[in-house]
Structures are given as structure tokens and as C-alpha cells.
TrEMBL record:
Signal peptide: none annotated. SMART domains: Gln-synt_C. This is Glutamine synthetase family protein. InterPro entries: Gln_synt_N_sf, Gln_synth/guanido_kin_cat_dom, Gln_synth_cat_dom. Belongs to the glutamine synthetase family. It holds the Pfam family Gln-synt_C. Gene3D superfamilies: Glutamine synthetase, N-terminal domain, Glutamine synthetase/guanido kinase, catalytic domain. Keywords: Ligase. SUPFAM superfamilies: Glutamine synthetase/guanido kinase. It comes from the Bacteria. Residues 117-447 form the GS catalytic domain. It comes from Tsukamurella soli.
Amino acid sequence: MDGKPGDPDGLEVAARELERGGVSLVVGTALDFAGVIRSKAVPTRRLRSFAETGMGASPSWVVFCVDNGIAFTPAIGVVGDLRLRLDVRALRVIGDGMAWAPTSYHEQDGTRSALCARGRLIGVERRAVGAGLAALMGVELEFTIVAPDGSRLDQGAWAAYGMRSVVARRAFLVDLARTLEDAGVGAEQIHAEYGTDQFEVSLAPLPPVAMADTAILARVLIGLVADRHGVAVSFSPLPFAGGSGNGMHLHLSLARDGHNLFATGSGPYGITAEGGAAIAGVLDALPALLPVYAGSVVSSLRLKPGSWSGAAACWGLENREAALRFLAATSGNPHGANIELKIVDPSANLYLAAIGLLGSALDGIERALPLPAEVSGDPAQTAESARLRLGAEPSAALDRLASSPLAAALFGPDIVAGAVAVRRHELTTLGDVDPEAVTDALRLAWS
């Protein structure tokens, strides 16, 4: 934005340009600890107020639950008010008369709130830079097309990864590709997935905060396109009981002085000592951080051996049953060597999940942890399968998150308490519900 006297930051000019371009509504989004996208919007002429003063939001916004309950904590109750401030640097026109940008939570005095997950991720990204590391993160978004009421669509036989499936949904997919490009979202590929009416959009790697912002925008745009075509999308970890689950896989690469930590060393597949320590740190933190990555009451239904969801706490080269899949530096990997955390699903607060992945990798490097042994086959077929199994005891995982010193350091005690309260609310209200009933009830909860 080009500033002028009386408008040094260019916000008035930007607002007028948006209005001339047909934008009437500016929407700001924030993620709660249940992974649901919440929003506030203003007329375009109020752009400056949204950016500088912010829009009011109760602290309870962060502990809204998937069933619209509120999981209060000692620090989050009925008293107080926060301000949602729009980050105009990320402002995008998204069509249908709207523009979008992410928001951050601030206190009334202008300081960033301790409850702001996006603000915590900004801090962890800066910590990596301060340590001399360049971090890039990518994300794969899986979703399922459903009828507007959430029921299955009737379209005949489905070909997993098949051209027939693309042809059947070509109008939707062409519109989606165009909409993502127009909004500046770097879609790397779009393809039909294994499950019926399931698709995946892979996004280009970006610095962590930009990755999370862009992924949230992509989810918003997928929903907008679906609505234009008279359908809805489910981002539930498991839309239909017994069916295929939706993941939100996170990729991470780390470089020091231009050298990839996962490709320029003498370890397996070129992993450096620091790269091995990063992998070790992520794996070491998995039991405590599991509720951050895949903590919803539906997540445990997806996170099972044999489902390619990464339900085992180990790493392996191109191992889709390992929680941490390693992608080596080859001619078939244009972005270079990286690690993929497969257990993350769309019910996660993506800012918190990114903090967990990057923060635990940095912790491993700082502690100089040794690279654990690789699991090269199916983890469920090893003698250690029971020890490696993730996701079987959600309540115990919440206990580990609540008492984890690393989680407290990465997220802050208020966010940990809030995240635990939200997931305990889900377990209390929906944990004993039949899988078919709970997947039906929550199919559109993250849409």
C-alpha cells in the first residue's frame, strides 16, 4: 500500500480501491481451540478500524466447542474483552464482494493476548530465525464433498485417484483452481483422493505463519466454491463412520546458511546431526502434543493402523503408516528433503499445530537429541507396535498435554488450559456416542 499525507499507511486508499473493485465486506478470521474458523466482518470503509482498533470478541471465543458449548477455564470466563485486529498485510480479495485477512487477538491496551495462537506462532518463527534457521512449512488439505445437509452425494461408483472422479466434479474443480489462483493461494496440485467424493489440495511451502494463514484462506475458498455449486464440504477428520478420513498433513524443512538440515549431512538419506535432532524432538513430543495435532473426539476414529493416518510414533522414508514420514532429497522432490507430520487433521488449530511441529523440532536441536532408529516397514507388524501406537487413549493424552513442560513453554499455560478444556468437553459430551452418530453430528463442524 502506498501511503500519502493524512493516510501514511495507505489504508484509506486500500479501502477505496477495494470498494471500486466491488468489495463491500471485509472478513477477518480466527481459529478457536476446537479448530473451528470464527469470523467478524465490517463494511469496507471500516478497514482502518478493523486493523487499528480491532473488533470486540469475548475471551470465550477461543474455547468455543464444536457443539457450540463453551469450555470455561479459571482464566477464561464471562468477564473481559479482546480485540480482533486484522492483519492488512495479508489482505486478499476472495470474490463474491468480499475481501479476507487473518486476525490476531489483542488486549484492550493494544498488547497481544496470551490467548492468541497466531501470535505464539509468530514468536516461534522468530525464535527459529534467531537460531539461524530458515523454516518452511507446507500443508495438504483433504476434504469431502457432501450435500448441503451433510448427507452423502449420489454420483455412482468412485475411482480412487481416478480421472473419472475428476471428470465427475470438473466444474467444481475448475472453479476451485481459478478461485485459488485469483486469491493468490499457491496450489501445487489438486487430485481425487481414496474416499468417495474426497479431494486433496496441496499448498506451496511458506514460512510458518504465512502457511497457516494461507491454509485457512484455502479452506474458506473451498467452502465458497462448494456453495456456488450447490454442495458443501466436510473437513471432519472422519466424515462417515467406516469411511476414509481427512488429514491436514504438515511438512517442515529447516535450513542453516542455505544448507538443508535433512539433506546435507552424513546420516541416513543425508540427514545432518541437527536434522536428526529435529526429528527426535518431534517424536519425543508426540505423546504430549497429540491432542494439539489430532485431539477432537472424531480424530481417534481416524487415527488407526492401516489407514495411512500415521498412527505410530516413529519415522521412516516414505512410510505412510509412520507419524513422521521422511521425504528425501531426490529429483522427484522439487522442494527438497523435508518431514511430513501425517497425524494432523482439520480439527486442529493450525497455528497451534505449526507451533508444536516447529517448536518441538527446535527443542530437539537445542537438546542435541540423537536420531531414533528408522522404522522401514509397517509399524503395526513390529514387536514394538503397542508402544508406538498413537491415539488409543484420548483422556490420557490430554493429561500428558496438561502436564507437559514443553507445551507450557511453547503455547503458554492459558492456551494449554483452554485447549485441554475444549477437548475434555468433547470427550464428556460426545466421547461415548456411537461412531456413526458422532460422525453424523460433526460432519460439518469444521466447514
